[in-house]
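pls design
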């Protein structure tokens, strides 16, 4: 048996781990804030919020996929002692780039006006020019964001027995930060600070996370923070054949695509029930990501029971999502009535804005909870299945998350 000191290291090392989790939490928060703010900036440029959101989503997630793939391979080539420094530099680069995005959007607008004189306003070519300039601005920082997970995973994961647990933990922490980013941008930052002020604050948070991680990297090597003894009850890596691995990778791509189908369909449905305000959209997005966060946390809690059966668990997750959605579709026509009852209960004494918004959040969360929990379990499960050697950890995580994200981009466009 290992005592807590062997598992966690010294109290100082434990505090450093908590600080690094905090950095990754901030990273998730800023990512969602940027997504919301860039949608607003592009709405001013493109003139149509539907197009703006689609472009931001495609460029943002496409950049994440590209960053996962490129930096995942680079993480494997870097000594583990330098991965934390590389992560810190990526965070700071994102912050600097974000500060420059208002200027870049202005430059893109000027370039479009200059080149757009050759085409008729509203023509297909004019729209393609807007898409090109918008994507060029967003793709850079989102690619840098995509590189943060492979580097951070290389810092946290010490051997192939940690892959499932630590991937689930990092995914849960980052997703929880995204929930805060979604709610904070809509309810606090934009109303109080405006677009520019919110962008500056998010960039400062990125820079703070980068500086904190860089300070830890310069003072302590990751081996000193995450060193631990092997347990006699360590699980044996699950034996899966190439066919199963290909199936798992294909499944995670399809999972990303169907997750986007469900997300957009839910958003359209809830917009009819809750209203299409900015607050409602933020609450829907937060409820969706909350389910994914909870799914990663559930897997983190039960990873020992799942150990050795990850492939079966992945199959059950996919089947569970499909079966649940099939059986619950017949009940969707009654949901507006259910929400009406909840609304009357929440505002029975006196109209209360926050009570009403909290009611909307929990209503969305309860509708989405089961499938989103299963979606949150699929990525860590697939990563654990695909990672055969710790030396290929960055490449494996980059590939799995890139395939899932590309599936999400395809789902949003389809």
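designed seq:
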């Amino acid at each position: 048996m290992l005592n807590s000191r062997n598992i966690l290291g010294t109290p100082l090392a434990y505090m450093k781990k908590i600080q690094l989790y905090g950095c990754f939490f901030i990273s998730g928060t800023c990512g969602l804030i940027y997504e919301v703010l860039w949608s607003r900036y592009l709405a001013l440029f493109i003139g149509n919020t539907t197009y703006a959101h689609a472009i931001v989503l495609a460029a943002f997630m496409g950049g994440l996929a590209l960053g996962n793939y490129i930096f995942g391979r680079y993480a494997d080539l870097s000594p583990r002692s330098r991965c934390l420094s590389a992560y810190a530099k990526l965070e700071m680069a994102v912050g600097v780039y974000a500060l420059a995005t208002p200027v870049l959007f202005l430059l893109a607008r000027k370039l479009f006006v200059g080149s757009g004189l050759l085409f008729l306003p509203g023509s297909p070519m004019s729209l393609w020019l807007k898409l090109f300039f918008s994507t060029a601005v967003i793709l850079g920082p989102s690619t840098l964001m995509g590189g943060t997970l492979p580097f951070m995973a290389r810092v946290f994961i010490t051997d192939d027995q940690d892959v499932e647990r630590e991937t689930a933990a990092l995914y849960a922490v980052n997703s929880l930060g995204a929930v805060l980013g979604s709610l904070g941008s809509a309810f606090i930052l934009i109303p109080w600070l405006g677009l520019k002020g919110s962008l500056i604050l998010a960039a400062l948070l990125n820079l703070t996370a980068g500086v904190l991680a860089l300070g830890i990297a310069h003072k302590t090597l990751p081996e000193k923070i995450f060193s631990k003894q092997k347990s006699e009850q360590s699980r044996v890596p699950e034996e899966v054949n190439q066919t199963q691995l290909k199936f798992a990778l294909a499944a995670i791509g399809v999972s990303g695509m169907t997750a986007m189908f469900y997300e957009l369909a839910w958003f359209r449905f809830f917009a009819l029930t809750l209203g299409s305000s900015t607050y409602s959209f933020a609450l829907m997005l937060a409820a969706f990501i909350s389910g994914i966060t909870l799914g990663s946390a559930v897997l983190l809690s039960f990873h020992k029971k799942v150990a050795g059966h990850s492939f079966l668990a992945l199959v059950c997750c996919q089947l569970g999502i499909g079966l649940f959605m099939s059986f619950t579709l017949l009940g969707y026509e009654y949901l507006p009535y259910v929400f009406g009852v909840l609304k009357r209960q929440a505002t029975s004494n006196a109209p209360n804005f926050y009570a009403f918004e909290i009611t909307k959040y929990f209503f969305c969360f309860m509708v989405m909870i089961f499938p989103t929990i299963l979606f949150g379990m699929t990525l860590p499960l697939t990563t654990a299945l695909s990672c055969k050697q710790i030396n290929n950890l960055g490449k494996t995580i980059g590939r799995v998350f890139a395939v899932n994200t590309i599936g999400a981009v395809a789902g949003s466009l389809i």
